[in-house]
Amino acid sequence: MTQTIHPLDVVLHKRDGRVLTDDEIQAFIHALVQRTPQNQLVTDAQIAAFLMAVFHRGLIPQELATLTSAMRYSGETFDASPLHTFTVDKHSTGGVGDKTSLLIAPVLAAAGLASPTPSGVPGICVPMISGRSLGHTGGTLDKLETIPGFNTQLTLDQIFLSLEKCGAALVGQTPRLVPADRILYALRDHTGTVESPYLITASIMSKKLAEDLNALVLDVKTGSGAFMPTYDQSKLLAELMVQTGESSGTRTIALLTNHDEPLGRFAGNWIEVWECVDILRAKRIEDRHPMSADLIKLSNILSGWMLHLAGHAPTPEAGAKLSEEILLSGAAFKAWLRIVAIQCGDVSIFHDPAAHHQPTASRTLTATHAGYLASMDCKQVGWAVQRLGAGRAKPGDPVSAHAGIEMHAKLGDPIKSGQPLVTLFTEDVSLLDEPEAMLRETLHIAPTPPQLQPSIREVITLP
């Protein structure tokens, strides 16, 4: 008779530094997804203890591979083979104002539907499984759900239809799709275990591998706004994810990207959608807002790698150029409208996205003296955005559609005394004071320009 594996024993073994067996890990994840209110196979306290044990003890490669696989197959998985396309996705480890998915998905969808494609090269489809706000960073699903009617909770059949009709789907983890991660993801935010490279790897890769991908491009943040506190830890995370993806048969590339300030013009929920729609609608470079330049550059670089891996560009650099051409041609905006429409979103809102931004109160911080915007703790900026109402204090909390910030300057910019630095938005005027104090504390103006890191620090691939 097979010996029963108790969840508490799994917790104790990992707490004490033992290597968990495949059976122990699989049994724990099975109990996690099979529990009901009437039959608590594993309790929230035991799940929290498991997360903390992994946070402190780590996982060896075999444990990490088994945990990722168990989570991947904890529910339904997607089968992309009937589409006869190259299935590719991108994922970010999370950042303040990081909205590249909202640009990349329509760019790749437009490229995949383009006719003619390079000789002998299959089309492209992009099944993007995204998450909600976590810690100091925003969530793609929260942003998308500010579009009236937009449905992120698609069934696998609906995902297939969206990919077949418009080349992309922007969805979340439903109870039947990677349910183990849905449970763990929510608890990590409130157990102090968000920053574990092993838990991040298992979370991201279980979702991505469940998409039946041919290739995956990872945006791993480093700098003051990243989950990982040091460059070496960010690099470790990138290496873990690349190794996990490649060992599962998915071509995986990771870019270590600098994140010392919010990405783009806005950080929040609806305002980030607004920013991306403005970019998608712009037909000339001159029509773009200058605060969005870094967002566009990073989006094109990531899209470029995806187009290259899919065979639509001979090099990543050629792919980035193609991405820019698709953006300015208007094809990506048309693809965006198709994606939103098939997921039941109201596309009429994009005729005047600025008009949909309706905060109850706003406040602008100005410079007290002249100089250069020299530094900021980007993580603290993210917490300020969260406390304006754009993030969550606990799982299940509602988020404000209109809370957030608008940046009026980037690191290294010359600053005049009295110049606007950042504008705060909220739907509750009582929430303004603390975020204002946090931002005033962290935005530093110096007499000389700072030394800035390049946007792409390193590209990680298997040897």
TrEMBL record:
<dbReference type="GO" id="GO:0006206">
    <property type="term" value="P:pyrimidine nucleobase metabolic process"/>
</dbReference>
<dbReference type="GO" id="GO:0009032">
    <property type="term" value="F:thymidine phosphorylase activity"/>
</dbReference>
<dbReference type="InterPro" id="IPR035902">
    <property type="entry name" value="Nuc_phospho_transferase"/>
</dbReference>
<feature type="domain" description="Pyrimidine nucleoside phosphorylase C-terminal">
    <location>
        <begin position="372"/>
        <end position="446"/>
    </location>
</feature>
<dbReference type="GO" id="GO:0005829">
    <property type="term" value="C:cytosol"/>
</dbReference>
<dbReference type="InterPro" id="IPR036320">
    <property type="entry name" value="Glycosyl_Trfase_fam3_N_dom_sf"/>
</dbReference>
<protein>
    <recommendedName>
        <fullName>thymidine phosphorylase</fullName>
        <ecNumber>2.4.2.4</ecNumber>
    </recommendedName>
</protein>
<dbReference type="GO" id="GO:0004645">
    <property type="term" value="F:1,4-alpha-oligoglucan phosphorylase activity"/>
</dbReference>
<dbReference type="InterPro" id="IPR000053">
    <property type="entry name" value="Thymidine/pyrmidine_PPase"/>
</dbReference>
<comment type="similarity">
    <text>Belongs to the thymidine/pyrimidine-nucleoside phosphorylase family.</text>
</comment>
<dbReference type="InterPro" id="IPR017459">
    <property type="entry name" value="Glycosyl_Trfase_fam3_N_dom"/>
</dbReference>
<comment type="subunit">
    <text>Homodimer.</text>
</comment>
<dbReference type="Pfam" id="PF07831">
    <property type="entry name" value="PYNP_C"/>
</dbReference>
<dbReference type="InterPro" id="IPR036566">
    <property type="entry name" value="PYNP-like_C_sf"/>
</dbReference>
<dbReference type="InterPro" id="IPR013102">
    <property type="entry name" value="PYNP_C"/>
</dbReference>
<dbReference type="InterPro" id="IPR000312">
    <property type="entry name" value="Glycosyl_Trfase_fam3"/>
</dbReference>
<dbReference type="GO" id="GO:0006213">
    <property type="term" value="P:pyrimidine nucleoside metabolic process"/>
</dbReference>
<dbReference type="Pfam" id="PF00591">
    <property type="entry name" value="Glycos_transf_3"/>
</dbReference>
<keyword id="KW-0328">Glycosyltransferase</keyword>
<dbReference type="InterPro" id="IPR018090">
    <property type="entry name" value="Pyrmidine_PPas_bac/euk"/>
</dbReference>
<keyword id="KW-0808">Transferase</keyword>
<dbReference type="Pfam" id="PF02885">
    <property type="entry name" value="Glycos_trans_3N"/>
</dbReference>
